[in-house]
From TrEMBL:
This is Glycoside hydrolase. It comes from the Bacteria. It holds the Pfam family Glyco_hydro_43. GO terms for molecular function: hydrolase activity, hydrolyzing O-glycosyl compounds. Residues 1-20 form the signal peptide.
Amino acid sequence: MKKTHFSLVLFLMIFNFLQAQNIIKGTPPVIAEKDLTAYIFVYFTGNSVEEEAVRYAVSADGYHYYHLNNNKPVIDSKAISSTGGVRDPHILRGEDGKTFYMVLTDMTSSKGWDSNRAMILLTSTDLVKWKSNVVNIQTAFPENENLKRVWAPQTIYDAKAGKYLVYFSLQYAGGPDKIYYAYANKDFTALESAPKLLFVPKSERACIDGDIIEKDGVYHLFYKTETEKAGIKVATTTDLTLGKWIENDNYLQQTKDGVEGSSVFKLNNSDEYILMYDVYTKGKYQFTKTKDLEHFTVMDNEISMDFNPRHGTILPITRSELKRLIVKWGMPEKLPKINNNPVLEGYYADPEILYSNKTKKYYIYPTSDGFDGWSGNYFKTFSSDNLTDWKEEGIILDLRKEVSWANRNAWAPCIVEKKIKGKYKYFYYFTAAQKVGVASSDHPAGPFKDSGKALISARPEGIKEGQEIDPDVFTDPKTGKSYLYWGNGYMAVAELNADMVSIKSGSTKIIKVDNTFREGTYVVYRNGTYYFMWSEDDTRSPNYKVRYGMSKSPLGPIEIPENNIVIQGNPDIGIYATGHNSVLQIPNKDEWYFVYHRFSYPNGIKMGDAGGFHREVCIDKLEFNPDGTIKQVIPTHEGVESLK
């Protein structure tokens, strides 16, 4: 490697490391890497027209792949192509995290290798339904009369241009295959301009099957040389369209057999990459592993597939995306069981859970996490009918737009459903700028309207330290009275007036707890006993945990059992900082669920203090002993089973 290239790469590695630190200190990513827990393999299977179609397979670990839809096509080639067949599918997740882009060679080999002039652009938001458009290079752009073939298109987002760059090989009569590019239009239905040259080797000999991946600010273009000794090579650049490529003369394939269709993907929650390629002369794939995209180790013995793919690509996907595919095309028999924790994708904390009698659904109201120093400024809610599949209902309260008395530190909400004059009404209590406010709505998913002022804005009398945060509302089933609890460093309680947006004068009191109390009060009632739960330690501490006490009154005093830990982390399986909980009782049943947050898995424990604002929400079962004490909850990755 040239010294100048090394210096540039070193600079870019340092720059991107610093950028990564800013991500930790900034705002949540569109898709958190910790939520990428599976893979989709998009491929075709052979040279007959029936085989030239898009097929799917999935994997839980990136090593073992299982076909979907009985290895039959998931998209009808005849419905989307001009030739009746498609090949070389490439799939990309868009910058918004939720749009997927696929590009295909519009071709059937039965008509000859020089027969095609077109590619197909597709978009989807669910990986199931796709919108498609044929782009015929020869007819769309003048002066392409000598065009012989358009092969293996792929897409990458060019951050400098702010556009999606589609690249592919073209061959004109009398010349070698070269890799060209054009930017897609905004709707990804056409190309903005005629193709321009992206890359041709110094040898000026043919190259096809380009695959570009960005690492540490450097773009790596893997490609197949065609007319010299055939094989996979790589070239690098820091700007996709300047034409300044540094070529690596080494062949990268780890076999003497003919290969094509190389593709690179990053293993989830890892610093390792897989370079795979189609060993087309043997009808199989070879997988190799690398950390630096320069040195590759064969891992064929670790890979398994129950199908024989040709030239395709692999993309990391989330659990919800995997579930969507399984709902549509069935669960592969040997695919490992899917974990249900965390229940929400993204960074969220301080979960409040509610069953709505109005909608007959469950709702989680969390802190929006992933912001530096807990600096989030809006609240969302999520709904479910089974406790395992959660739908984001969007932002229900934005401090910057809808709250006049505070615009920062949106934390730790709670909610209560009340039937007033025959209609359900929802009162949402939240922390903002270390004060407690209240907003109301006629629907559990909002929109919520703020009351216009803080409900709690000062420490209770006699309290010298702590914060006015972490509200919890409990309605006593014996009396129908509702109580507001709050406090960090102290546990305060006050009775709410019937309007639910004001405090009964003179009702505020401090409930004595032992020195394990930090924050996050939560109260439930069962069989004549009031259970008080709270969090111990700091949310940035791996030892953050939940304890409890018991009382005969919603106002205390609290009796603390000898072993009063409700939940704590399990380092043996990478679970830390399990705290700030709420509790769900299934209506009319003695069936209970414990909802809490923890450091995001698996990397939260490596983030230092930032682990305390990169948290995720989980649910596990809550059970009681015959004497009424609480069985310690065991935190799991599996989570709870879907409710029937």
